[in-house]
Design a protein that fits this description.
Elements: E1 2-5, H1 13-21, H2 25-38, E2 45-49, H3 55-62, E3 66-71, H4 74-86, E4 93-95, E5 107-112, H5 123-136, E6 137-148, E7 159-166, E8 169-181, E9 186-196, E10 201-211, H6 215-224, E11 228-234, E12 252-259
Parallel strand pairs: 1-10, 2-3, 2-5, 3-4, 5-6
Antiparallel strand pairs: 6-12, 7-8, 8-9, 9-10, 11-12
Length: 260
């Protein structure tokens, strides 16, 4: 029998981290390659807005970077900080809003890799976020920002499923588009975690709202924030040898932005 667990997926960082933390290496290597290729100064200090469980922060800390992050969910922040403490590092994460924060000391680069940006509910919040990140960066600092655009020239991917296992714990994550309103620029996204141990099957069911961005809408937003220039764009293959040209068929995109 399946036991339904109440609450939001983000309130269960152990399961969230297993699903999303298992595929960290490609993003980690991509970030380091971007620092080497596009930064005009040594990259030592990093910041991740909406850092979640710190799946990338911990890898970067172990590679010698000074890291910090924020997230609105206190469960994720506690999980992140406990992970760092177990490995002998100071707590890097605080509860905070990615659209309203200030850092005590500027960083060399910031990153937000997959879609957290789309949780920002409107244009004002998105602009505020970009201004906050720009203010946190040194001159010529990088911001590496990944998200799903809404393609208008082809069908979009509206369902995904993937699985991860650690010891006797396995989690199957399913995500689907539950409805999209292009006029209001809102997409309802349904998600489930099916959690398996040798003796139990539990399921978390959730739904969240994502703001939609077509390629022209994202281009206009970035033009409004004149603290950044777009250096290059890639897709989620994270291949630095294959930058992409964004058009009406583009769905996965990672922007490399530089603070001017």
């Amino acid at each position: 029998m399946t036991e339904i667990i109440d609450g939001h997926l983000y309130d269960y960082p152990k399961y969230y981290d297993l699903v999303y933390g298992s595929d960290w290496k490609a993003e980690f290597q991509f970030l380091q390659s971007c620092f080497t290729k596009y930064s005009r100064r040594p990259v030592k200090r990093l910041f991740e807005p909406a850092c979640g469980t710190g799946r990338l922060l911990i890898r970067l800390a172990e590679a010698g970077y000074q890291v910090q992050g924020n997230d609105l969910n206190p469960h994720a922040v506690d999980f992140c900080n406990a992970r760092f403490q177990r490995r002998g590092f100071k707590h890097p994460a605080v509860v905070g809003d990615m659209a309203a924060f200030r850092l005590g000391r500027k960083v060399d680069s910031a990153f937000n890799m997959i879609n957290s940006f789309r949780h920002l509910p409107d244009e004002t919040a998105a602009e505020n976020h970009l201004h906050c990140v720009a203010r946190a960066l040194v001159k010529d600092g990088l911001y590496i920002l990944g998200l799903h655009l809404t393609p208008t020239g082809c069908d979009r991917v509206d369902e995904e499923e993937w699985a991860a296992r650690r010891g006797n714990l396995a989690v199957i994550s399913s995500m689907w588009s539950a409805g999209i309103d292009m006029r209001r620029r809102n997409e309802r996204v349904g998600m489930t975690f099916d959690i398996y141990t040798p003796t139990r099957h539990q399921r978390i069911v959730d739904e969240m709202n994502y703001r939609t961005y077509t390629a022209p809408q994202m281009k206009r937003l970035l033009k409004k924030v004149d603290e950044f220039e777009v250096v290059e764009s890639f897709d989620f293959t994270y291949d630095l040898n294959r930058p992409i040209r964004i058009d009406d068929r583009t769905e996965d995109v990672v922007f490399v932005l530089r603070r001017v």
